[in-house]
Amino acid sequence: MLLQSTTISKCVLCTTAIFPSPQLSPTLYPPSRPGFPVHSYGTVDYEKRPMPKWSTIYRRISFMEDPEMGAASVLNRCEKEGKRVTKWEIRRIIKELRKFKRYKFALEVYEWMNNRAERFKILTSDTAVQLDLISKVHGISKAEDYFLMLPDSLKDKRTYGSLLNAYVQANLREKAESLLEKMKGKGYISHPLPFNVMMTLYMNLKEYDKVDVLVLEMRDKSIPLDIYSYNIWLSSCGAQGSVERMEQAFEQMKLERTINPNWATYSTMATMYIKLGQLEKAEDSLRRLEGRITGRDRIPYHFVISLYGSVGKKEEVYRVWNVYKSIFPSIPNLGYHSMISSLIRLGDIEGAEQLYDEWLSVKSNYEPRIINLLMGWYVRKGLLEKAEALFDQMVEQGGKANSGTWEILAEGHIRERRISEALSFLKEAFSVAGSKNWKPKPVNVSSILKMCEQEGDQASKDVLVGLLRQAGCLEDKVYMSYIPLTNGVPTSGELDDGDGAEMLLKQFQESL
């Protein structure tokens, strides 16, 4: 059953013919109808439930005026105020900090707990989470050191699995495969999680045949596939261009009594159908996806909106957006990003600009990725001045550009063959805080180098290569595979825009 709404957003530039008369859905009831609450299917309405005590400590840590003071200072102050923090509260605080990617604070909370061994017993589940946090905050080598220093009593399938996940997130194939063999020897792979983690590695490396090998191994060893196993396998089959194999995997999934296809399943299939040009089947998957949305989960809406945009169904994009806005009192930045991105993809630039203005009026913080959507469209249409005006507006209102913002400005100058200005903006992109792992699009690198060669500008070429070397791009084999080398200098290439599998892999990684 499709999502329906009784309210229409002010931003919608469509006639009532686009929005059919609302009908009550077995999944979601319009909140504007008195007496028809949203069916939670056993979930709790987090916007109405009483705030637990741990949340006060979490907020103090998360919104510290001086982050350099560290999470320990907040915990110490709470205890001085007479609040004795429990192990359960610590774990809940850490879970919330990880959820919002505040990994440094989460690690500091664990370190505070570790220094109070007389009060808190450290379990292997604690060490597994700490290892994950260390890899995110300090890098994989520090995570390896931490693992080696652990006593044998704290090394089990959880900590081994955490290290395996760290290797996979760093795309360290050889180390991941070696560790998996050790885990097999210790009997730590009797469940699907290690296989799922390795599947994400092979999906990231686009070695889809290895995913099939792991699925066969699981079946040979009578290890049941779970919902993540099937979703990744479906994505792999679709990425290999085989609708038939994907549908066969889906039929096997439906035979499993303990597994019900979820919204991510149908989102994955819709993504692959779109990639393979099967738009009718994609729409069918999207309708099934809508029927799987329950409770207060915002994330499915973002994907439904984006996928309907990819199918080319503007009226469906607006319909789902109205349902989304009628159910939730506030829409996060990611929701606006999905909607504006879809409208741009559909060629509805007026609608995208109107949504952007609406977002400006309700935003809690400047999200450069939203601004980048419009700036990128302006640049592609040769409207560099308009992109620069939007950039200036953001800066004037206190917003900060990310690496992508600076690269968009660089693209504008590349299109106008202004090498010096393009390089200047790329320098800014490399210097942005948090840009450690950022890399420019190979097509932009190639364009600048081609212009340098055409104009005999060796100095600019040297500057660009120096920037790439300083950022570690030249040592990245995967990245450089898209930029063939001539005498040690990248000359051409373009990265694939991706096939939609990133959503599935990200969802699985965040579930670990």
UniProtKB/TrEMBL annotation:
Keyword Repeat in annotation: yes
Pfam families given in the database record: PPR (PF01535), PPR_3 (PF13812)
Family: Belongs to the PPR family. P subfamily.
PPR repeat intervals: 156-190, 367-401
Keywords: Repeat
Name recorded for this polypeptide: Tetratricopeptide repeat (TPR)-like superfamily protein
Gene3D superfamilies xref list: Tetratricopeptide repeat domain
An annotated GO cellular component: mitochondrion
A GO term, aspect molecular function: mRNA binding
Repeat is among the record's keywords: yes
SUPFAM superfamilies documented for this protein: TPR-like
